[in-house]
Write a structure and sequence with these properties.
By secondary structure, the protein is α/β, with parallel strands linked by helices. It is built from 11 helices and 10 strands. A 5-stranded parallel β-sheet has the order 3-2-4-1-5, with helices on both faces. A 5-stranded mixed β-sheet has the order 6-7-10-8-9, sandwiched between helices. S-adenosylmethionine binds next to helix 5, strand 7, strand 8 and strand 10.
């Protein structure tokens, strides 16, 4: 971050610049102008941003700034801003700070009273909501769930208990796992898979929970690429459905082993899994 100003007409600030998530034409005119004019660009991956800049003929200096270095480098960013520089912050794709580095340096700048200027554009989050057909308000964004184990299950349970639409980012190698969990935990709700947004194989589908895993595995192409997964609101107050539990058990038992059928019925009706299992297997109560 040198002291020589590249473009003294651009006010000193941290410019938080959104870049495309697929289609390069989604880069805004303003983003392009800012990237060309700032003194340097903080980039999550300098090679990724380097390709974008070279396509546009922009030669602004790139500085690596990622999740590992953000905390350590933020004070140098502050010093450079205090010396009057204009600095852009970008991530590999989409809007910085949304499941991407940026939050810490933005918070540090605001605390120091330094200007932070948004240069908005694409985010997979807003893009997916806009084509989901699901309510945007209320909605709850959880980013990436923990990768595995009890933390994943607990976070999913907590998120599905929220009113309104629930939104996740998910990696392709975990999408079937998430689909399976939603089949069990989100019955009665709709799930929208927004895949490869703005790219050649873009796909937006609405699947009833209970059918998500089947939808994913029916065609191996469906689990390729990047995903936003949106779960529609639970229409029942308190999250439990007023169902005929005997009928529900009979229907579920046609598709699932008794213990799974009992677990799903318990989730849906709020009744005891043990009692439902007994009813299904005709085990007399103790
Ligand atoms: N900050 C970015 C934004 O605002 O979109 C998101 C970065 S996060 C590290 C990357 C995740 O965003 C992917 O794993 C996927 O869940 C989602 N994502 C990014 N691009 C996408 C696309 N083209 N289609 C669907 N989801 C996408």
């Amino acid at each position: 971050m040198s002291d020589i100003r590249k473009n003294p007409t651009l006010p000193s600030a941290l410019y938080v610049v959104a870049t495309p998530i697929g289609n390069r034409e989604d880069l805004t005119y303003r983003a392009k102008a800012v990237l060309a004019s700032v003194d340097c660009i903080l980039a999550e991956d300098t090679r990724v941003t380097g390709h974008l800049l070279s396509e546009m003929g922009i030669k602004t200096r790139l500085i690596s700034f990622n999740a590992h270095s953000e905390e350590g480098k933020s004070h140098r960013v502050i010093e450079a801003l205090e010396s009057g520089q204009a600095i852009a912050l970008v991530s590999d794709a989409g809007t910085p700070g949304i499941s991407d580095p940026g939050r810490l340096v933005v918070a540090a700048c605001l605390q120091q009273g330094l200007s932070v200027v948004p240069v908005p554009g694409v985010s997979a989050l807003a893009t997916a909501i806009s084509v989901s057909g699901l309510p945007a308000a209320p909605s709850h964004f959880f980013g990436f769930l923990p990768a595995k184990g009890g933390a994943r299950e607990q976070s999913l349970t907590d998120s599905l208990a929220m009113p309104g639409t629930v939104i996740f980012y998910e990696a392709p190698h975990r999408i079937v796992d998430l689909a399976k969990r939603l089949d069990e935990r989100a019955l009665g709700r709709v799930v929208v898979f927004a895949r490869e947004l703005t790219k050649t194989f873009e796909q937006i589908v609405c699947v009833d929970a209970g059918q998500c895993e089947r939808w994913c595995v029916e065609n191996p192409d469906r689990i390729r690429g990047e995903f936003v997964v949106l779960v529609g609101p639970n229409s029942e107050p308190g999250g439990k459905l007023d169902l005929d539990s005997d009928r529900l058990l009979r229907v579920l038992a046609r598709e699932l082993p008794p213990s799974r059928a009992a677990a799903v019925a318990a989730e849906l009706t709020g009744q005891s899994k043990r009692a439902l299992y007994r009813r299904l297997t005709d085990v007399p109560p103790e």
